[in-house]
Every structure is written in structure tokens, then in C-alpha cells.
Amino acid sequence: MKKAAAIGGLLCLCIFCTGMAFPSEAVQTGSEENPEIVLTYELSPEESPKQIIQKYFDRDEYRFSLRDIHKEAVTNTVSKMVSEAILIENQEKSLEENLKLLDGSKEYDQDGFTGILTLVPSSVKTEAAGYETRSYTVSDTKTYLDLPYNDPGLLPTSVTKNGLTLVISDVTWKGEGGTGANGSLIPTSYTATVNYSGTGSSRYATGYVTTAEYSGVVSKTEVQKNRYTVTYEGKILESEEVKDLKNILPLWLLGVTAVVVLGTGAAFFF
After folding, report:
1. CA geometry: angle at 168 spanning 165 and 171, to 5°?
2. How far, in Å, are 43, 100, 252 from residue 94 at the CA level?
3. What percent of the chain has pLDDT over 70?
4. Are the C-beta atoms of residues 64 and 57 closer than 8 Å to each other?
5. How far, in Å, CA of 182 to CA of 202, rounded?
6. Parallel/antiparallel/unpaired status of strands 35-43 and 25-30
7. DSSP code of 251?
8. What tens digit of pLDDT does each residue of 186-230 get?
9. pTM beyond 0.90, yes or no
10. 10 Å Cβ neighbour count for 41?
11. Is 154 in contact with 142 (CB distance < 8 Å)?
12. Which of 64, 93, 113, 181 could lock 220 by a disulfide, CB 3.0 to 4.6 Å apart?
């Protein structure tokens, strides 16, 4: 019961001194000659520690002065799985070559979450970025022997090469053997050299795009509250200071007594 009363009085003293925050723990240590009071407060990250700081206060025949304040952050870590896609523009169609352009891992830093993401090999794909069409000329030459006349009608009008149809673009005739009246040379057969040509077109990729996915576990550490440990060290007051203190003591003693009674009753109940 005496211990409960002492703690209740000490807590009342804390409220009296700071006027605001209520400590989560109050402990008196040290010797009779050099007593110490250690107060522990737990504040939200938004609350200022100014409300718990008192430069000094008087208790009994001692004056307690602020010695130091220790701050400790109470944190909570949250983790989650994330995936992130990247895109690389290049000129290679080979998936094997494009894999060489990708790093095995990458850093993640978004919305307070940090971590390392790892490449998912099965997610890597390479596709054409776009297409264009180009034209080209295809030609072929055919020789036809032993034709009775130098008549283009005897020649095939078209041929096929590489799946493309070519048409006649030029013909060269050459007569072979024979004599005619008045000593003129009359060919008995003809050889035709025929040039065929045509225009083809092809569709080609203007470039390639490689996409890949990285995934991994990332985490974020948040400060839930700040724990402040405030230590006061006491010194015996001079005789005149004690006399003055005794004169003003009854003004706040009623408040201390009330809290002590409440604290004692609560301790007895629990």
C-alpha cells in the first residue's frame, strides 16, 4: 500500500510539473543525498517533447533539475510482395542476346518501401516495335535456242523466281547459219537472250522492344511512437528555500493527496 501511494504521489508530481502529458512510468532512484527521478513518456511522432520538459521542480526538501533526455523510436516494419516491369528498346531480335542487356536485380524505392527485386527469366519477351515496307528489283536472264524465227511471240512472256513473277524487259536475237539469194546470209535458226525483271516488296521491323518483370519482397519501417526517458537529479534546498517551500506546499498538496488516494485505491482494487 505504501508503494502504491508513493508511485501515485510521484505520478501526481509529474502532472503537476509538466501540466500536460502523463508519464507511462515514474521511478525514484539514487540515494537520500543524491536522489533521482526518472520519468518515461510515450508520445506520437506528431507530438512535441517540449510538453514533457521541466527545467526544475521542488519536492520535499529537494530541488530536482533536468539532467538529460533520452529518445528511443518505437518502430513497426511492414512487408509486401511487389512486381515491376521494365522496357528496353534495341535492334536485336534474339532473346538470348537481349537477356544480356538485363541486370539480374534492381533496387526498389517507392512510397517509403525499399528492397531488392529479382529478374523473372520467364517474363522476358522481345517483340517488334514497328514495321515498314521496302521495295526491291528482281531480275533473271533466260536463253532460248533453235528458234525458227526472231519472233517475240515464240518467247515465254514471264518466268517465276523466288516466288515472284518476272516479265520481259529486254530481248537480244542472234541468227545461226544458212545462205540466201545474191549471197546474203539467211539464218536457219535463232537464239534469243531474254532479260526478265520484276518488283518485290518486303516488310521489316524498324526495331525491337524487350520487356521483363522483376519481383521481390520490400519493406517499410514506420515510427509508431517515441519513448522519452527524462532524468532529474535532486539537491537539498537551502534552509530559506525550504521554509518558502513549506509555505506554498499546502496549495498543491490537496491535489497530490487526491491522486495518491485514487492511485492507492486502484492499486488495492487490482
Report:
1. 150
2. 59, 10, 86
3. 78
4. yes
5. 58
6. antiparallel
7. H
8. 788 999 999 999 999 999 888 899 999 999 999 999 999 999 999
9. no
10. 25
11. no
12. 113
Locate all alpha helices (DSSP H) within the chain, ordered by sequence: 2-18, 95-99, 239-269
Say if residues 127 and 208 touch (Cβ distance below 8 Å).
yes
Which amino acid, 78?
A: V
Count of alpha carbons within 13 Å of 202, Cβ hemisphere only?
9
Cell output for 159: 518466268
Identify whether the C-beta of residue 99 lies closer than 8 Å to the C-beta of residue 124. yes
C-alpha cell at 72: 528511443
Secondary structure (DSSP) of 74-107: EEEEEEEEEEEEEEEEES---HHHHHTTS-SEEE
Query: What's the pLDDT at 198?
Result: 95
From CA 197, how far away is CA 168, in angstroms rounded?
Answer: 7
CA dist., res. 70 & res. 53, Å (int): 12
User: What SS3 state is found at 114?
Assistant: strand
Q: What 3-state class would DSSP assign to 65?
A: strand
Using CA atoms, how far apart are residues 195 and 161, in angstroms rounded to an integer?
13
90 contacts: CB under 8 Å, gap ≥ 6 = 98, 101, 207, 208, 209, 210
| DSSP label at residue 182 | G
Angle between helices 2-18 and 239-269 (to 10 degrees): 120
| Cα 205 from Cα 131, distance rounded (Å) | 4
The answer to whether 131 and 203 are in contact (CB under 8 A) is yes
Q: For residue 66, which phi and psi values (nearest 5 degrees)? A: -65, 125
